[in-house]
Amino acid sequence: MRKRRMEEAVAKSLMLGSLGLVLGSLLAIVGVVAWKGVSALSLSMLIETPSGGYYLGKGGGVANAIVGSLYLSLGASLLSILLSLPVAFALQREYASPRLANFTRLMLDVLWGIPSVVYGAVGFIIMAYLGITASLLGGIIALTLLMLPIMSRSMEEVIRIVPLELKETSYALGATRIETALRVVFRQALPGIVTAILLAFGRGIGDAASILFTAGYTDRIPRSLLDPVASLPLAVFFQMGTPIPEVQRRAYASALILLLMVLAVILVSRLLGSRFSRNLVR
Amino acid sequence: MPHISVRKLAVSYGSHQALKEMSVDIPDGQITAVIGPSGCGKSTFLKSLNRLVDLYDEISVSGEVFIDEVNIYDPRADVLALRKKVGFLSQRPFALPMSIYDNIAYGPRIHRMKGRQLVEQIQQLHRSILLQNGEDPGQKLATPEEGEKGAMDFVVEYYLKLSGLWEEVKDRLHEPASRLSIGQQQRLALARALAIEPRVILADEPTSALDPLSAQLVERQFQLLKKDYTIVVVTHILRQARRIADYVIFLYLGELVEHGPAKRVFSSPRDPRTRAYITGEIS
Fold first, then answer.
1. Which tops the pLDDT comparison, B117 or A68?
2. How distant is the Cα of A177 from the closest Cα of chain B, in angstroms?
3. pLDDT (tens digit, 9 = 90+) per residue, A14-24?
4. Nearest C-alpha neighbor of A216 from the set A147, A123, A148, A146
5. Which residue of B88, B95, B97 is in closest CB contact with A172?
């Protein structure tokens, strides 16, 4: 009896300990970024592009990277959604044989673990094939490659857990597979699908290596898909590498901006998601 | 010729034979109860009547099932048309993830049923139900408003009334159906199934998840509807079968043991297994 109670206490303290460790380190990261960056954060940081001497500590801001990151990650998210949704539905048992589905799942899991610089390299090959240089389009292609496995795999997972009986209800009324998929399964899985999109978006907007040589870097805001484009992760990377303290602080400020942008996107999607999910079957 | 005629039907999941070869005619315009212990193939039998068994992995079906003289297992058979002809109620009702109104409208919409045609069928059904219940068939239904939307409103209202749910939901038709209680959801499922204008209703233990009052409501709706539809109810509640069944099919371990008019089967079962089940020796 005492032994079982001990076991209970040990398990509980282990769990709470791990939780504390994880939460603590996350808060520490956010804290360091905020503490070091907040002093350099100013309105001109947000709305100005770098002027002459910005990288030596003079005036200007990272508006080029903020807009660039938004363009890149939204473009790549859109492309990924258009490709991932059909893939996720295709992997369901109504469409794919279990063997093909399992093989694809395995491949997607493997792709998930590939370092993002490799996606950049593959993106670069595709760009060379298409005859384009480092540009917004190139960056979007590389980021899409990076986001696809994450998005399609997590979408597939949430679509798969829609109860069979719910699908049966629709089929029993004489609905086809595609009607059931679009009108019933999609709606039921929508909150999960939104989460899948956010997961991939978060990975995409924060990634530096895949866009290093596919998107390039510029102090200007791109006017077309074929212009090079700046991004926040690379802005952090470049500014962090200088010996000038003011520029280093700006690196932290840029990271803070990136963090707040991700937070804002997540909050807005959650809000929208809860409005959509009122019809769900529980 | 009865509505549903089963000939040498056998179903197996992989190497497990869920239903041994059976033949039976299911009478028209009556309630047929399929009874038997759990795991004896009742649900499989029911789901093979609208080919819902097609959805399961490694299933194999042999034999024939004729509905309106069409063999539904003919490779050329139109499964969607079949399922439109056969309404289905599952053990636990599932509300589609949309509003109450859209749940009812779902079937007519996917089958692209025209408003006019829907309204005419309803008027016909209405007269027939009034006649059977000894009421004046001249009793007028409200006339639907013009246009497709008016017709759909009319359809939704009529079937919700027919399934006895209208009074409870008429003020919140556009709320999510998932907010209804489980008993209400089962009546919603009935209304939804009726809205595609089936000729047959299959119900798989439709009251097993319901409280006694809701269960009674559903049973009463079946009694009301039986003259216009062929109703097949799977149940493991013997008392329910005694209450509502006109015809009984007894399955035991995947085998059709006995079938016949309910009175005869309950009062003088021919097979010792049926007798054992009915007297409560096995359950």
1. A68
2. 11
3. 999 999 999 99
4. A123
5. B88
Give the pairing of strands B200-204 and B31-35: unpaired
How far is residue A28's CA from residue B183's CA, in Å, rounded to a whole number?
51
Q: Tell me, what DSSP letter sits at residue A92? A: S
Residue A178 touches chain B, beta carbons under 8 Å: no
Instruction: Identify the residue among A169, A170, A280, A282 best suited for mutation to test binding to B, counting B beta carbons within 10 A and taking the highest.
Output: A169
- Please indicate whether, in this complex, the C-beta atoms of A169 and B96 are within 8 angstroms of each other: yes
Is it the case that residue A154 has pLDDT exceeding 90? yes
Contact A232, A159 (CB under 8 A): no
Chosen for mutation from A279, A280, A282 (greatest number of chain B CBs closer than 10 Å) is A279
CB–CB of B176 and A278 under 8 A? yes
Neighbours of A39 (CB within 10 A): 12
CB contact A175 to B (< 8 Å):
yes
Q: Are B98 and A172 a contacting pair at CB < 8 A?
A: no
Give the 3-state secondary structure of residue B7.
strand
pLDDT-based confidence at B97, cuts 50/70/90? Answer: very high
For residue B15 the two structure tokens come to 């190497």
- Which of B99, B106, B176 is closest, CB to CB, to A173? B106
Q: For residue A142, give the nearest of A119, A159, A165, A125 by alpha carbon.
A: A119
Q: Which residues of A129-156 are buried (b: 16+ CB within 10 A; e: fewer)?
A: eeebebbbbbbbbbbbbbbbbbbbbbbb
Nearest to B260 by CA among B37, B252, B271: B271
Residue A12: exposed, middle, or buried by beta-carbon count in 10 A (0-12, 13-18, 19+)? exposed
Q: Give yes or no for a contact between A62 and A257, defined as CB atoms under 8 angstroms apart.
A: yes
Are residues A80 and A140 in contact, defined by beta-carbon separation less than 8 angstroms? no
Minimum Cα–Cα distance from B186: chain A residue = A169
First to last CA, chain B: 34
pTM of the model: 0.85
Q: Is the minimum CB–CB distance between A281 and chain B shorter than 8 Å?
A: yes
User: Cα B254 to the chain's mean position, in Å?
Assistant: 21
Domains and CATH numbers, chain A: 61-231 (1.10.3720.10)
How many CA within 13 A on the CB side of residue A28? 6
* Domains of chain B, first to last: 4-97+182-279 (3.40.50.300)
Chain A residue numbers touching B98 (CB-CB < 8 A): 183, 187, 279
- The sheet with strand B4-13 has its strands ordered as B16-26, B4-13, B59-67, B70-71
